[in-house]
Every structure is written in structure tokens, then in C-alpha cells.
Amino acid sequence: MSAALSLNRLSLSAEQLAFQGIVQAALLEDLGQGDVTTDPLPQLVLLQKQALFRVRQNCVVSGLSVAALVCQMVDPALVFTPMLQDGDFTEAGTVIAQVEGAMASILKAERTALNFLQHLSGVATETRRYVQAVSGTETKITHTRKTTPGLRLLEQQAVIHGGGVPHRFNLGSCVMLKDNHLQALGDTNPNQAIAVAVKTLRAKISHTTKIEVEADTLAQVQQAIEAGADIILLDNMSPETIREALSFIQNRAIAEASGGISLETIRAYAETGVDIISTSKITLGVPAIDVGLDLD
Amino acid sequence: MSAALSLNRLSLSAEQLAFQGIVQAALLEDLGQGDVTTDPLPQLVLLQKQALFRVRQNCVVSGLSVAALVCQMVDPALVFTPMLQDGDFTEAGTVIAQVEGAMASILKAERTALNFLQHLSGVATETRRYVQAVSGTETKITHTRKTTPGLRLLEQQAVIHGGGVPHRFNLGSCVMLKDNHLQALGDTNPNQAIAVAVKTLRAKISHTTKIEVEADTLAQVQQAIEAGADIILLDNMSPETIREALSFIQNRAIAEASGGISLETIRAYAETGVDIISTSKITLGVPAIDVGLDLD
Amino acid sequence: MSAALSLNRLSLSAEQLAFQGIVQAALLEDLGQGDVTTDPLPQLVLLQKQALFRVRQNCVVSGLSVAALVCQMVDPALVFTPMLQDGDFTEAGTVIAQVEGAMASILKAERTALNFLQHLSGVATETRRYVQAVSGTETKITHTRKTTPGLRLLEQQAVIHGGGVPHRFNLGSCVMLKDNHLQALGDTNPNQAIAVAVKTLRAKISHTTKIEVEADTLAQVQQAIEAGADIILLDNMSPETIREALSFIQNRAIAEASGGISLETIRAYAETGVDIISTSKITLGVPAIDVGLDLD
Amino acid sequence: MSAALSLNRLSLSAEQLAFQGIVQAALLEDLGQGDVTTDPLPQLVLLQKQALFRVRQNCVVSGLSVAALVCQMVDPALVFTPMLQDGDFTEAGTVIAQVEGAMASILKAERTALNFLQHLSGVATETRRYVQAVSGTETKITHTRKTTPGLRLLEQQAVIHGGGVPHRFNLGSCVMLKDNHLQALGDTNPNQAIAVAVKTLRAKISHTTKIEVEADTLAQVQQAIEAGADIILLDNMSPETIREALSFIQNRAIAEASGGISLETIRAYAETGVDIISTSKITLGVPAIDVGLDLD
Amino acid sequence: MSAALSLNRLSLSAEQLAFQGIVQAALLEDLGQGDVTTDPLPQLVLLQKQALFRVRQNCVVSGLSVAALVCQMVDPALVFTPMLQDGDFTEAGTVIAQVEGAMASILKAERTALNFLQHLSGVATETRRYVQAVSGTETKITHTRKTTPGLRLLEQQAVIHGGGVPHRFNLGSCVMLKDNHLQALGDTNPNQAIAVAVKTLRAKISHTTKIEVEADTLAQVQQAIEAGADIILLDNMSPETIREALSFIQNRAIAEASGGISLETIRAYAETGVDIISTSKITLGVPAIDVGLDLD
Amino acid sequence: MSAALSLNRLSLSAEQLAFQGIVQAALLEDLGQGDVTTDPLPQLVLLQKQALFRVRQNCVVSGLSVAALVCQMVDPALVFTPMLQDGDFTEAGTVIAQVEGAMASILKAERTALNFLQHLSGVATETRRYVQAVSGTETKITHTRKTTPGLRLLEQQAVIHGGGVPHRFNLGSCVMLKDNHLQALGDTNPNQAIAVAVKTLRAKISHTTKIEVEADTLAQVQQAIEAGADIILLDNMSPETIREALSFIQNRAIAEASGGISLETIRAYAETGVDIISTSKITLGVPAIDVGLDLD
Fold first, then answer.
1. pTM (2 d.p.)
2. By the number of CB atoms within 10 A of the CB, which of B120, D163, F97, F279 ranks highest?
3. CB contact under 8 A, F108 and A14
4. Phi-psi sector, E251: left (phi>0), alpha (psi -120 to 50), beta
């Protein structure tokens, strides 16, 4: 405990600044008022150990910089060394990082670090499945706002690690006119709802902000294009309908397909030539990757 | 915006006090610096609407009190009325709650409320599957510490809503001597490691705290019982080995089975008569329940 | 102090959720450990008063919803009633809001509420000057990231209240390639720096995110257009050079002028037909509006 | 839990704004992740009860507004009604407040509310003993900065409730030149240390800030007076020495006695005519007042 | 102030993570908006000094790791070196730690560090008195939930430093059925209240959580044992009654005595053979230990 | 990102502890969920650069310690080296600090650091103008409470850097009886309002707290002096009236002039011999200083 001896430090990068809040919350959640198993056994503080984070499934790794922050917050004297980088694909059995320091500190950091790694690597790995399913096409894969509360930033990064691209981060990042907005706005003349809404918004929003319009029908696609939407969300359409929509859109807007698209059907969607497919299936209810911590 | 007119309020129960931090984090995450779709359309503030939270799958509902808090934080004038209670099983198509108020506020609260409901109802529903798989036995189902960072309290409650029981909340709730602890302590005489550790801990911990010991072998079960452990974690054992362990334990400790138990095999484990089965499968990578918000 | 009698409330809208942090910081800053003038004079708590927020200069009002939150945080029993709306232009002497309640509470809220109103109305009013200077043209006025630390959201809203439009909120809202980025990237072939950077970024960023490129020369304008930039920042150019740039751009990108543009010269810039002019002069060092609180 | 039914509210006065941080910390400390006794017994939520806060010793009451905030934070539907006011002296057996509402909420608020009341009433009551010991003299009683971490504001208010007056709140409230400062400054000419320090400080500090100088000897008293100190701290002097000091000071500064003054000796100090006596004995290690909560 | 020169650090252990909130609150409380005595005297920043924390009474030391954190938060360049460990008994005059660095920083950290050390060493030392009073018996000493708001974790550790053992940390750590719960539950059949409550709770709580039942009479002791309580709180009983209770309990539950037990009577209670005695007298209104900081 | 390699640190002085909240708020405001320009260009992380903070106008520098903290928070590996000190006057073109490290980190810290430097140097420089305008007189210049919300501490320090002196920090620092207080108190006998209020306050406030009374007329000056005010605020008086007031006050109180004093008229006020002049013009709507960051 001697501050004179433990010249350690809390190292934060700008990236870590953005997620230190959730990491601290997760640690306080797990550490509570102290570890009743480890704290009464002072020999665990004196014992210096090395432990290995090892994946037990093939996966895309995500969460190493989070795990590094977990270890530093628990004990700045812990030395966390990643063996590969977030976004790397690796095979079952690979050591992805090692941590060295007081056994007591390793035991306190273990579960929280693993919980982040398991979930985020799960998101990255699931994303990769979808990305591979469309390989050879020009179509990109992205997420939705159906994310785990508190973890959106990390899940978005995991999607990137898996080969996907980011969608709008939140309600402030991009206009998205959905059926609920249009229904609320368009009472008197539904056909004009999109045109009126886009015009009103364009006059008020930043010139750096795009407008995306959700279209459930080809008629709405046409209305959105004519209104000057930057992006058309082709919602719950079949590949055939999407082809029709695309032949109308003709690069006048970015075309995004979404709704009811599974790993089985996604290639058919990509082969329509749609620019991007968004799916909640890469963030919601995604299988976790089994990661363990082995004492050396 | 007139404060003279909007005599609303932020209603917090003691239960909500514990999770208001994660709710606020989730809202700030999604609202960002404002909703660029809704904010420039002031008619959405004036428009009073009613919307219905409807489940699209059979499920156990969990997260209603969280969704209520989300709505209140977004706009204290929103009136959120649950139609059933957390823990109720219901069928696809059921309206589980309604919210009434300014359309703009409903749109801002929608995604965050749904994200909580989808995930937590998923945990509750998955728990129910495991609970039903052991129905008729005395065995209880519980979670592990493999939970989503930041959501442990809510996931633990969802497990309860699904018919499970809580495990230790965190490292401060119960002693759990695992292989890593014993390995670190038992260098000179592994056979004595459990006895020494339990004795040391019993002298120092609260008389309100139990000691659980992880046993990988029957020999360790015997050592744990002799050391006076309150709970024995029978780790990664077959039902047959567990039966042997139980015949030795003979109610001198609570017997908990864990490790490699699936929905398919869990009944065989429960029929051994083990007191409780803990599994990460009810919190980790659990399928989300589809919940939507329909404008009335 | 009787909780049984003071059935008051803390009313927060989604809008106020975003700025309650800075309001609370400002209040704690001014209230310290109590008001040593008011607290020892209990008759000021008993005395019910009405006070009027009155502007002493012609101005565009901004900050009413902030002042409302200040009053509610100081004392939920204070009734704050705005007389007009944020964004309204009004003349010297106008009462813009009234507050009614315990004299002690009014005195505690006064300075903080006024400090917000004075500064934000200053920003809105200065913005209006620039907006009026370009009236009759199609050019819009927007802010930069040169804002007061902690107040960007409120200053951006004040710009809108003054007739301006928002620019990107922060580093996450829009790509902005500036000379420093290009210099760092373009060592081997400066002519290619823009093309390479835009291509790299376009492959990785969200399809909802625009790319703005800063151009100091017409050559760079051409490179930016060819690279497919969404917005070109015409930096520190004369109106003549901007005309040349615009004739080249031909609506293939949004043209933004910035740098060295004053209230005197802005009309000449607007008359070039540039889409938008950004200036730090509407947020930085802006004259405050004199607002006072008069006891009725 | 129906938000539609529980139209409750969180009532915060400006006074409570200053101590809501410590109240929330205390509640989270005691509630943890839920009350494992009360939460599984839903009949306690339905049961409406009234409970009485009753003091079991003669005392000066302090902490009623804190207890009110505790109750409101636990459950805004709890109705807390004080029967007397902070600062009132009352006898053993008196009901000082009542609380009415859900039994479960009362049980959750009970301990935290009592912990504040017991300690703060202890401080107020101890202060009253010192104040009474000097009754009839002009001398006032005040505290020092030896307070309980996190509770200084509440303890200062309790001192006032007991009849004392506040001292400087913290290092920012008033200059206090102590031996350590002078020793550090006065190496070359100790006799000049006070004069030099006061002159330097007076030129730099606010004209609203006073300068207090600690004097251990009559020589230092003289130096402090000549230097123009506003307050002289007569440290660890006998009543006789203080009389000498006072005859020299002659109202040119406020005289404060401190150090080694007990309840037994304080009257002798007050009878010297010293303006104020500060003592840590009214905040540090003060006996708590026994307060209980009785179900009606 | 040169960041290039001051390569200092903020060192936090997992232990310190749990109490950094209260330490920061205490520092902000004392430092306010700056130290008006020290800040205007820049020579105090340049002056390097060593100062010694010295106890002026025999005591058990507690709070050294807190004082270390205080010093690091004030100035990471301060080097704090403990001379002994929390939990050590030492005599008046002992230097328990030294701190070295800028005189200005030492002066700013002084009072806050001392306030923690004085109170926590007081708790540890008072605990030791009670522990010594029962020496030679098997009875352990523990605290209650009557602790100082915000300081429970540190006070619990101080109790351990004094030779005591921890009780449940908060309402989430252990079930405690008290008279108020039973009264609320047992209207129809008081004799059955304990049995019903224990059975209900056992079915719902974690298998890692114990159930403690408060018994005021021997009849209740019997009911609690028959209901299967893990711990019986023998409340406000005489040693004789406790003996009777123990002869009935016969190790079927842990027996805890509490209520009305003083330093004078505690040995008589311990000699009954009761397992543990809990008392608020070791945390509430405990005399502080005199600790000072001497410049070397 | 290797924690094993980046042995960096977060260096906080006591001074920085007080403003780290606003710095973190400003950084989170500008960094959002990541820098969409810099993050996708990993070569900017690898590129080590040196950049120079250069002022483009003659100015008094203020904000260097804030800029240092900004850089450290963004990336503890950034080395920030000030070239001069807060409070130094320097000429256009001077490099006031340099920062060295990863180009990506420099780009992320740039705008926030500059925003603080521009505004605070503006305050310091404007203060210097007022200070120089009264040079040769004994009159000091100070600020008011009309400051930018969230920035009062930094603006107060900037005033000191410009040669001014601090006024009361907030409502807790000094009593200030203004017309609103007196009006509220003095209904029955206005002539007695000041006397009664001062007497009441003096009995209750700390002996370390001064009392300032606002006087609009010479009659009020007389009342304030007779009441024993420590400071008289001569509000909105002409220099002639102030001379009359001073001849009456005769050093019995500190005389502060305020209200309607401009850079043009301030010397005439100072030549009256008034002790101090307070003005909002040095904090409110002050021109920013142009500061840039140049890549080396």
C-alpha cells in the first residue's frame, strides 16, 4: 500500500476516456464493498502471478482495450499486454492477452474483464459471419440502435472489428424519418408527408447532417427520392422489391435494406446491389465467445 | 416549456434508485445532443398520442419498472401505465404497457425503453425455459457472475421474474474459493489447501457471510465438507458423479451444480437431487424478445 | 421545510436532461455552502414575492428553458412563467419571464439564471446581426467549434434562436479534413493526400456521416470535388476566389465559407452564392445582453 | 409501481441541493442492491403505516431536513412531517417527526435517516452544552475544521442549531496563517514573518476575505496586530495570558481562543472577554443522541 | 506546473477504488475554490518539506491507505510513506507516516488526511477496548448499521483493524427479520409470523444469503430455531437469559447478542458463550484519536 | 494501446482538482463518441509530432494549466511544456506552450485547449486594460458574479493573471446586502433596514465573514457606516458623489465603486481614491484572444 513504492499510474487514452464510465460502473458492480474471498487472504496480495486470457472458440477479438482499462482501474501495477489487436480473427486456444501482477488484483479484475471480452468478441464474431455471407458483393453490413443499454459505443466498435461499418450513433447523428414521424405529420395529405418533412428538416438541420427516410413501399421510395433524401431505408422488402427500388433510385441516394433479413437470406439481399444492410442480429442476443483466464 | 403549466415530477422508488444510473447513461447515450429528427418539428411536441408496448413473442415480461423510469426521465409528463407485472408470462401480441403524452417525447423514449424490455424479457424467458425443464424437482435455477457489464442488478431481477433465484450479487456477497485461489494458497500441501483457507476465512469474515467451495473432484468435495463449507460448487461433473457427491454431502452443505449444463441435460442434473444449478446460459447471449411500440 | 406541505417537483424535459449537468454545476458554483446573506434572515423564506426578468436592450431571447431549470433546481416551489419564447426578438424593457415564490429562493436563483440569459441572448442576438446582414440571399449562417467550454449545446441552440443553423456538434458528428490532417497524411504525394484520405475514410465511416474537406486553394477545391467530398470548406478566401470555386463546384458539394469574415464583409461573401458561412464571431467574445430581475 | 398512479415527486430546496450528494451516498451505501429482507415480502409494499421518530434523550434536534430528504429519495410517496424544527431543544420521549407510507419504504429509509439524526443532534446538543457553559458572557462558540469527512456542511448547521456560530467553512473562506506557514516563510527573519505574510496576502486576496493569524505568544499577538490582522487566534494560552493579549488588542482585531479548552475550563476563558472560542470537541467524537423509529 | 517535468501519477488500488468517492468529496469540501492562505504565497510551492504524522495517544492506527489517497489526490508528486500498517497498535508519540513534497501541497492535504486518521483510529481503538474486554473467550465483536453516513466501508475496516469482525454491510448482505417486519407480517397469528416469514424468504433469496432473526424472548428464540434461522439476534437480554437461550439453541444457529451492552458489562455477556456481540458503541460517538502533522 | 508500453499517467495538482470537472465536461462535449476524422486513420496515432501554441495578438496569457490538463486527459503520453506562465504579458507571435506526442491525440486536444486559452487570455487581457487605466492610483480592479456559468473559478484566476484581485467567489463568501434584500426587510421603517439587517446578520454569521452593503445614496452610505458594514458598495454613483461618500467614510470601511463604469471613465473613478472598482466588463462579453496551434 506504500505510495512511496507503488509508482503506478492510471493510463487513459482519448478512446478510453469515452468508455471509462461504463468500465467503472461494471467494476463497482462486481467489487462491491470488497472481495470477501481475496481480501482476508493477504498472501494473495504478495503473490506475483502471470495469467493468460485465452479464447476457447474461433472468434474475432474485441474488447482488449476495455480489458486493459479494467486491469488498470483495479490495480495500476497490473501489467496488461495484448498479444493481438481488436479486430483480429483467431482460433480456439489462442492467448489474446496476458496480465501480470498481484494475484489478488488479477482475481478482482478477472470476471469484469472477461464479461466485456465475451460479449464484445461475440458481437464482432457475429458481425463477421454476416460480412462473410456477403463477401464478393459491394454491400456493407451495419448495426441498428437496438443495442445493449450502456454499451452502444463498445458494440459499435465491435461491429467495426468484425468488418462492419458504423450506422448513426444516436438520435443526434442523422435524421431518420420513420412511419411514426410521417404518420404524426401527414394527417391531411399522406402523399405529401415525406416531401414536407424533408423540406422542413433540411431548412433547420446542420448541413453536415444527412436525412434518411424509411420507405415501406415503392411509392414511398419515389416520394423520398423526389424529396431529396440522402439515404432510403428499404424496410421489410423482398430482394425483388429492393431491385425495383434500386432501379428507380439510380444512385440518387444511398440505399439501405433492413428488416427481416437473416444470415440465410442476407446474400440474396446483397446481390441486389443494395449499398448497405442494417441488422439488429449482430448486437442483440448474440452468442457470447467463451474466454477464460488461465494461471500460468 | 412553461414551468407554470407542466407540474410534472420525477418519481423514483427505492428500487429505481438502484438502477437510475444505468437508465440515465442509456438515455444520454441515445439522445446525444438532441434528436435531430424530432426537435426541428415542433408539431410533434404539441401532438398528444397514446402508444402501446406490445410483445411479438410469447415471453416472461421483465423491465416494466425500467421502461417506466425511462419515460419519466425523458418527460415527466409522460404517463406510463403497465398492463401486467414484471414476471408475468404472456403471449405474442399482448400489450404490456401503454404510454401517453407528447409524440416527441414518446419517440425519444421509445428505443431506450424497448432495448431494456427486449433484453430483460429475454433473460426472464430463457430462465423460465430452464426452470420448466426441471419442474417437479426440488432443484432451483440461478445465474452466475457472467452478466452484461452495468446490467447485473436488472439481469438478476429478470432471472427472478423468470422463476429463478438469485446467486451472490458480487465478490462482496459470499466467499467463493475457486481453483485459482486454492492453487495460489496450497503450494506446500494441496490436500490441506481447502481446510486452511476455510479456517482462515471463517475467522475473518462476517458471521452473516457464507463460504462456498468449488470442487472439481470427489476428493475436494470431501475436503470442503470436512472444512465446514456452507455450499459446495460441484463443477463440471456428470450427473453420476454428482449423485456420488450428494450421497457423501448428506445435507451437511448446500450442493450447487455448474459447468457444461445445457437445456438438454439439465433435467438429468436436477434429478440427482442437487439443490441448485447455476448457469451463465440464462444471462449470456440470450435471445432478445421482440417488443414493439405501436401508435394507437 | 415540511415535506408534507411542499408537494413540489423537479420537472425535466428531454431537452433539459441534456443541459442539467451544466446548470447544476453553475448553481453549486454560485450557492457554495449556502447564501450567507439570505440564510440567516428567515423572514426572506416566508416572504412570497413576484419578480420580473426584464431585458434592457433590444435582443433575441435565448435561455428561458435554462432559467426555468435554474429556478426549479433552487426551489421546486418557484413558479417560473416565460412571457415569450426562446428565439423571439424583443425590445428593451420587455418582461421576458416572471418568477414567483419565496423571496429567499428568488435571490438564490437570480444571478445564475441571469448569467445564462445574458450570455445566450448575446449569442442569439449577435447571430441575428449576421443573419440580417445576408438577408435576401440564400446563404445560411452557422457557428464553429470555437465555443465556450461546457456551453456548446446551449450556444448552438442560441445560434438557432438567432436565425442561424447548426454546424457539426463535435468531432464525432462529421468528418472534417483540415490542413493538419492532410499534412500528416500526404508526405509522399501532397496532390493525392485528399483523394487518399477521402477514400480511406469513406470506406470506414458511417453512411450517415458526411465528409467535409478544408480547401485553402482552388487546386484543393478541385481535388476535394474529385475525391467526392460532401462539403468544401473554402478557408480564408476572398469573395472573388470563392466565386471561382463555386463555378467549379457547381452543386457537386455544399460550399461553406469561413475565415476572416466580419459583419462588414459578410454580405459580399453571401452574394457569391456560397451555401453557408461559418464564423466564430457569433459565439466567441460576443457582447452580453443586459437582463435584470426586478421585484414587482 | 404504476407510474400512472404514483404521482409523487422529489422535492429539493436550495438547502437540500447542497447536501443531496452525501444523502444519496449514504442511501446507496445502506440499500446496496436491494433490501433482501423487505423486497421478497411484497405485502410490506402494500401495507400503509405511520411511524414516529422519537428521541430517547433530552437533546437539541438537528437533521430533520436531512431525514426528510432521505425519505423522499427512498420513496417520493412517503410523507414526512416534522413535529418541531432543527434547533429546538426537546425532552426524552418527544416525537420529532412522523413518516407515513408503504411499510417497505419506511423500513428502507429508517436506518439512514436515524444515522443522520443521531449524529447531527449529538453535535447540536454538545454545542449547546458549551454555549450554556458561557451563558451570560459575550463570548460565542464555534467549530474548527476538525469535522467528519463529507459532513462538514451538516455539522456546521448542527453547531448553529445548538446555539453556536459558524467558523470559516474551508481553506477558501478566510486566510489563516498558522505556525507551519510562518515557519516556512520566516526563515531569514522570524520577527518579520507575520508582517511580511500579511502584507503579501492583503495585496492579493479579495477585499471580502479576512486574515486570521495564529499567535502562540504575546509577541506574536503584537506582531499580528501591527500587521493589521483581522482576527487573532490565541492558541493554547491560559486565561491569564489571554487577558494580557486582550488588553493589548483593544478591539483592533477579533480575538479567538482555541486549544486545550474543555467544558470544565471554558467559562474561565469566556470570562476573559475573548470574542469567540473555537473547539473541535463539538464536532469530533461527540456522543450520539439515541433516536428511534416506532411503528404507530 | 510543467507537465513535462511532473511525471507523477494517481495510484489507485482496488481497495482505494471503493472509497475514492468519499475522499474526493472530503477534499472538495475542504479545498473549496482554493486555499486563500497558501495560493497567494508561491514560495510555499517551491519549498520542499517533509512532515510527520504523529499520534499523540496510544491507539490502533486506521486510515493510512485513506491518508495516502488524500495526499495523492492533492498532489501526485507528494510521497506518502506509512511507517506502520493499519491495524497496528502503537504508543503516543509514534510517527505513523511521513509525507514529502511541496509545502503548499502538504498544507492542503493536512486537515483532510488528519480528519480521516483521527476518526478511523478512534473506531479501531474503541473496538480494541471491547475486544480486549472479552479476551480469553470465544466471543467476537462486531459493529451494527449505526455508522456515520458515507463512512461505513471505512468504519467497517477500522473495526477489523481493532480486532473486530464485520457484520452485514447493508440491507442487501443478509436477511434480518426485526420486530417491525414481524409485526407487519404477523397480524393474524403472531406465533406463526417467524415461521412464515423465514419460509417465504428462504424460497426467494439466494442460497448464499443467511437469515438472521431478532428475538426479544425465549419463545421467539424457539420459533426462530424451529423456523431454521441461521443466526439469532438475542436482543436486549440479560446474560442469564442469554444462557438459557444458548442452552436451547445448541449450535443449531449462530447466536448474536446485542442491545444495552457496555464496556463494563460485555465480559459477562461473552462468558455466556454467545458467538458474537454487536454494538453501536464502537462506531457511534467514538472518541477521536489525537493525530498531528509536524514539520520536520 | 499496449498498457505494458504506455507507462503514462494522469497528473493532477490540487489546483487542477478544482477544475477537472469542467475540463472533462468540455472534452466529452467535443470528443463525443470518437473523432470520425482521426480514428479511422491509424497512421495518425503512429505519427509523433510537435505542435506549438502561438498567440496571434498581444495578450496576458491565462489557461496554461488548464490546457495542460486537457492534453493529459486526452492522452497521458502527450508532453505539454509551457514556455511562459499564466499572468505573463506577451506579444503576438509568441509560442506560449508546446505539445508533443501522437498526432491523433494532438488533434483531439487542440480545439478544447484553444477554447480555454482564448477565453481566459481574453479575460486576463481585458482585466489588464482596466488595471493599466488606473495605474498610479491605489485603486484595485475586481470582477463581479456576472461570470460564465461553469467557469467562475477559471475566470477569477484569469482576472488575477491580468493584475486584478478577486471579489467574493459566491453567495457563501461574503454577505452582500442589496436593494432587494433591504426592500424585502425594510417595509415598516426603511431608514432602519440597514441597521437591523447588519445587526441580525452579524450575530449569526461567522466572525470570518465580512458584510458588504450596497448604497445607492449618501444617506445609505451613512446608514451602512453607522451599522458597521465592512465594505460599502457605492452603486451607480458619479465620481463626484463617490468623493463625497469617501469623505464621509474616512477609512471606517472599504469603499467599492461599481455600476456604469467603462474603460473610458474608470480613471476618473480611481482618482477619487476609492479602494476598489468592480466591473462585469472584464468577464462578460470579453473579446477572445486569437491563439492557434501550429504543427512544427
1. 0.94
2. B120
3. yes
4. left
